Amino acid sequence: MSSEEPKILGFCCNWCCYGGADTAGTARMQYPPNVRVLRVMCSGRINPAMVLKAFKEGADGVFVGGCHMGDCHYDAGNYKWNRRAKFIEDLLPEFGIPKERFRFEWISASEGEKFQKTMEEFTNTIKSLGPLHRSFPKVSKKAQIAN
Amino acid sequence: MESQFLLAKAKDEEIATKGECGGAVSALFKYLLDQDLVDGVLTLTRGEDIYDGIPILVEDSKDIISTCGSLHCAPTMFGDLISKYLTDMRLAVSVKPCDAMAINELIKRHQINEDNLYKIGLNCGGAVMPISAQKMIEMFYDVDPSEVVKEEIDKGKFIIELEDGTHKSVEIDELEEKGFGRRINCQRCELKIPRNADLACGNWGAEPGWTFIEVVTEKGAKLLNDAKKGGYIEVKTPSQKAITIRGKIENAMIKLAQKYQEKYLEENYPDIENWDEYWNRCIKCYACRDACSLCFCKECDLEKEFYNDEDAIVPDPLTFQGVRMSHVCFSCVNCGQCEDVCPMEIPLAHIFHRMQKKYRDKTGFIAGVSEELPPLYSPEKE
């Protein structure tokens, strides 16, 4: 993949969204390879620090997928994540990261198509925003070395 | 309970003259210690000079007299003092609104036991940094700061008293326009009357020599009643006019605070380039965390290897302040301690207060005032 391609980190919950990605895969649905999927047991396990760390490490976008409301394997994990996600949307702009670079969605294990569509949409959004150039010097230096 | 208004003063002559506004607060402390209702009183006393308000724990009611009188150059916080060092004591504590807010947040997080605590609230228009008080007295009053024996804030003026009894005053608005006066976070503060304490005491609307008290909780009402029966304080009902005046002062102060919020958190708020410059100054001394009245974790996430860069001195703001903000900013009580202690003068309270305001607008949660924990702690399916 060329260095121009955006890097997207995707947190997917084990029970729904990861299953959705699997469904998309087994049905041979094409979706952009920019997303690196990281499986977590529940979207409720994700805290804002993980999203912040992803951006710090050079992600251009962060995606989080959880179960639909009412479907959480652990009863209320996705409700907790939902509150946290809204908070993250407020927090990111304070550090110069537009909230469009962060997206969360509810995708069930059977919704391979929704997973495919979401990845296409999100990758297009990130591509149109371009690579994340943070003005914080230390990071830009690091990015230079990486390139 | 429905709030109730009273005027009170100390019966003890010495306390009544040495104390502020008739010494009602000091008399209540004396009553609590004498009756063994508390083991100690946590309050402020004068240190070296009038610019040096320092916390003191009084365990003998004879010593209460040394804590009489108000101090405005005292940007202190009591919340973490209690949760870190005094949890085994039954305490009475004199709280300005931000103290009461911090204590409430700590109570909700089980770091302080509310049953052990009498919160005697003091109305607060804002505190002044000791350094800036001395500078402005030199510049605007043309007086040597060491000659000042007493300071007072009244009717929008910062008033100083000299050794020979003369008074000099300057409008606070004028001082603040030039960058002096109250601390910036105090200028933005909307809670002037601590209705989150048991009692809210102050001079707004009071007659000379009396303290105006708003009784907020049952506990506060009982304390006042018992202290009256015990002969420690004298109580009377304020006139309707006095109540109106107090309300007017409060409203004017709140309006001014909202104006300053607009000014500091919107109009003149630093942009991203400024923030990058600020974050670049960070020397990662952790003073902001240590001074924070809300941070109480024994093992701090910020010290985990996970967030550390091997070769970097300046921490990445995302995983330093960002992580700290993701832990506490929705509960920020705008006490300004982080900003006060920062050796690199990063305007931290600005960004924390701005985030709590955003969170308040979205969820209705007001840090330090709402009775519940922030919705982020909720297990509910909503």
In total, the number of domains of chain B comes to: 2
The proportion of strand residues of chain B reads 15-25%
At the first level of CATH, what is the class of chain A?
Answer: Alpha Beta
Number of helices of chain B: 14
Number of strands of chain A: 4
Order of neighbouring strands in the sheet with most strands of chain A = 2-1-3-4
Give a verbal description of the structure:
The complex is a heterodimer of chains A (147) and B (382). Chain A has helices at residues 17-26, 48-56, 77-91, 112-129, 137-146, and strands spanning 8-13, 35-40, 61-66, 102-106. With 147 residues, chain A is of the alpha/beta class. Chain A has one domain: 3-Layer(aba) Sandwich (Rossmann fold). Chain A is globular. Mean pLDDT of chain A is 91; it is low at 139-147. Chain B has 382 residues and is of the alpha/beta class. Chain B has two domains: 4-127 and 182-261, no CATH class; 272-377, no CATH class. Helix content of chain B is 37%, strand content 16%. Chain B is built from 14 helices and eleven strands. In chain B, helix 3 crosses helix 4 (97-108). Chain B starts with a strand and ends in a 19-residue tail after the last helix.
Short description:
The complex is a heterodimer of chains A (147) and B (382). Chain A is α/β, with parallel strands linked by helices and 147 residues long.
Topology (elements, then pairings):
The complex is a heterodimer of chains A (147) and B (382).
Chain A: E1 8-13, H1 17-26, E2 35-40, H2 48-56, E3 61-66, H3 77-91, E4 102-106, H4 112-129, H5 137-146
Parallel strand pairs in A: 1-2, 1-3, 3-4
Helix pairs in contact in A: 1-4
Chain B: E1 4-10, H1 13-18, H2 24-34, E2 40-46, E3 53-58, H3 79-85, E4 91-95, H4 97-108, E5 117-122, H5 130-140, E6 148-154, E7 157-162, E8 167-171, H6 172-177, H7 184-188, E9 199-202, E10 211-215, H8 218-229, E11 233-236, H9 240-267, H10 272-281, H11 287-291, H12 321-328, H13 337-341, H14 348-363
Parallel strand pairs in B: 2-4, 4-5, 5-9
Antiparallel strand pairs in B: 1-10, 1-11, 2-3, 6-7, 7-8, 9-10
